[in-house]
């Protein structure tokens, strides 16, 4: 009778283990999908960095037509610094996300020997995802600053009071700031619930 009870308990334990494994794989696929999305967005922003760099050159005249409104070398220098810093943060964010994806995939792969299997702590995963998201946000802020410099180089300095420059900067700052607030709020909500 004891043997039959043991046999009855075995399938229940197996069912629990397979349910836990299925739940872990489901949660893991959500993490991998989120990290994929972050890497894809960072790639698009990196393209924007190089577009910004390609549109500027020293001594370029603005479309304002007034030589006093042309951007000086300090604006071009700031543009290059902001673009490089922005690219660095996007690269940091993407590399952290790719590293987490690799660890998650190794952790859940059935084809990997136990000695090669990655062991990732849930706390490390959350911190890594948060660091990757923070890198994207900081990269966006520097990209925003660099785009303001691109606008000043192409349309004229903000100090000249050009309507086109003012509208372009206002639209850029408003839309990007709103999007960043939504993004940060969503990430904060996801990490606290």
TrEMBL record:
Signal peptide per UniProt: none
Which UniProt keywords are given for this protein, alphabetically ordered? Membrane, Transmembrane, Transmembrane helix
Q: Where is the composition biased (Basic and acidic residues)?
A: 9-18
Domain of life the protein comes from? Eukaryota
Keyword Transmembrane helix found = yes
Residue ranges annotated as transmembrane are 38-58, 79-104, 124-148, 169-191
**Disordered as annotated region, ranges:** 1-22
Asked whether the keyword Membrane is assigned, the reply is: yes
Protein name, entry field: Uncharacterized protein LOC103715455
Organism of derivation: Phoenix dactylifera
